[in-house]
Amino acid sequence: MSSFVNHREDSTVTVEETSTKDNVTYYKITVKVGSVRWTVLHRYNDFVELHDKLVSDHGVAKELLPPKKVIRNKTPKFVEQRREALSEYLKNVFNYLKLTMPSEFAHFLDFHLYDIFFLLQDLAKTLFLEGDNMLENEKSHNFTPLQLHAISERLKMACPMTEKQDQMYDFSHILDFCSQLRSLNIEGSYEKLGTSNIVPNDLHFDLIPFKSLLELKILGVPMACIQSVGGLRDTLISLSVSTASVVSLNEFLLVDILHKDPSSIADTVKWKKLSVINFASNNIDNVDWAIKLVPRLQHLSLSSNKLKELCDISCLHDLRVLNLSMNSFSICENWHAKIEVQHICKLPCLEYLWLTANPVASSIDYRVKVLEQFNARMTEICLDNEKASEKELDTARVLQALRVVKEETTNFA
Amino acid sequence: MTSGPYNYSYIFKYIIIGDMGVGKSCLLHQFTDKKFMADCPHTIGVEFGTRIIEVAGQKIKLQIWDTAGQERFRAVTRSYYRGAAGALMVYDITRRSTYNHLSSWLTDTRNLTNPSTVIFLIGNKSDLDGQRDVTYEEAKQFADENGLMFVEASAKTGQNVEEAFLETAKKIYQSIQDGRLDLNAAESGVQHKPASPGRPLAAPPAARDNCAC
């Protein structure tokens, strides 16, 4: 993302190419701000329109723009000449207006799409006019990584004196909105944004301005992009991070903590209200100890991951729903005695358990073998969205009796 | 639309300034959340908070910028003075150095805000009366000489915190009523609430913000 106010002297505007569509010639403007670049297409008439405004409001010399030509204005030679002339025009105007960068000019060059400062001005205006309405009526609000990055960067900057004095464009309105927002969606992308070389998933941002957030949904944003979760640990109730290639839960839960070792983790990093976690469609292969940082967890979905085993999750006393479908829990000889099954079965509040589409779920008597582990609570468990039938319960009780006998024999021996 | 967070008529912009560690962030926190943060971290750059208050029957939203007191952030914090309707200037009654620096804070404020900006002096940590290093009287005199409003307050107990923010708002509101403060001036720090929901003033809702792009 570009930051023009910091790269004024390192910016250029040129017209390098032309193209024709529906018999209209478009001039392709290339804007470079530091290492960021993008292109904008405008026809000659757009230049005329811009020029009129710049002449009347910003003291640009009237004769600067290459003149109109009515006939024979499509010949390659003429187009090439005009391209050169327009490039020279933009260069001159840009140099002249660089310090003030009036909004008409910034919009003409698409600064409001790619530049921190101009994007935020437009966002501030939108949120000033519509923010309360959105907060009241929207179920949740989408921010792009670009917007979040702009906000984070802007907070570190001295705010520049600008030509735009209207308080409507004040950054306060953005933070005001963020500090009240309850439900936020962020969707990432590896595709370059518009005509620019900006890749949204390369941009870093933090979530510090979101002070009352209850619900957060992140889709396809790598965790390395998030630099701080701010006060979310005290407010967040529901968290969803999907298709983000997350390998372990602590990638988000401890995203801003440098030393992720269990012994140095204090109570302050606990997620005090978080009760719903959905990490579907990631690459998680083990539930790590970070789960202990979420003592109020009621609903945990790890569907479509690469889980083979589960650590001790018996600390999750409030867990009601556990979705482990579409993972890699496999069959093994004495699988029901495997440690994770015991961990699951000892969860006092568990009611819903999903294990479908794991290799284990295709084994013989899979349902009764799982249900049996719950002992007296087997009637209360809803496995793969289905409660145990009478027949299954009968079989499970037999299995259970056999197991008890077997265990006693082993103990005596 | 008779109550709730979206019902207000004006937006006032405030800044909180003063030396490092005088309790600026704690004052803000006490005012917005009615809680005392015991281990408040140093502010990096700026912090932000809002609250809706009522003055003379009018609901007013305060947008409050809390600035870092550390010298190294001065370039950043200075840029937030602009367009502030109220400035809360804070010192710590138990540390004389923070009081001695007030004149430089005041110079900054006068230079960077507009003449109608209401400046309120707060002597924070009034709960620590035993360690007092600055008397009420001398601070009061400083305030009077410079035409500032003044209280001693405690972000810890909450004493006078509410009053400081509210009195500032009252004074600003009074300036509007008297016509001393021009609402349409670019840097007044006061704005009318935009048109009520469902009846937007201008600008179609930007599709960019709503679509998943």
Automatic annotation (TrEMBL), chain A:
Keywords: Leucine-rich repeat, Repeat. Residues 5-135 form the PX domain. InterPro entries: Leu-rich_rpt, LRR_dom_sf, PX_dom, PX_dom_sf. One of its GO terms (molecular function) is phosphatidylinositol binding. It comes from the Eukaryota. The keyword Plastid does not apply. This is PX domain-containing protein. It comes from Spodoptera exigua.
TrEMBL record, chain B:
Residues 189-208 are annotated as: Disordered. PROSITE patterns: RAB (PS51419), RAS (PS51421), RHO (PS51420). Keywords: Acetylation, Cytoplasmic vesicle, Endosome, Golgi apparatus, GTP-binding, Hydrolase, Lipoprotein, Membrane, Methylation, Nucleotide-binding, Prenylation, Protein transport, Transport. It is a lipid-anchor. It comes from the Eukaryota. Belongs to the small GTPase superfamily. Rab family. It is an enzyme of class 3 (hydrolase). This is Ras-related protein Rab-14. GO terms for cellular component: cytosol; early endosome membrane; phagocytic vesicle; recycling endosome; trans-Golgi network. Gene3D superfamilies: P-loop containing nucleotide triphosphate hydrolases. GO terms for biological process: defense response to bacterium; endocytic recycling; Golgi to endosome transport; phagosome maturation; protein transport. GO terms for molecular function: G protein activity; GTP binding. It is found in: Cytoplasmic vesicle; Early endosome membrane; Golgi apparatus, trans-Golgi network membrane; Recycling endosome. InterPro entries: P-loop_NTPase, Rab14, Rab_GTPases_membrane_traffic, Small_GTP-bd, Small_GTPase. Residues 194-207 have a biased composition (Low complexity). Its EC number is 3.6.5.2. It holds the Pfam family Ras. It catalyses: GTP + H2O = GDP + phosphate + H(+). Its cofactor is Mg(2+).
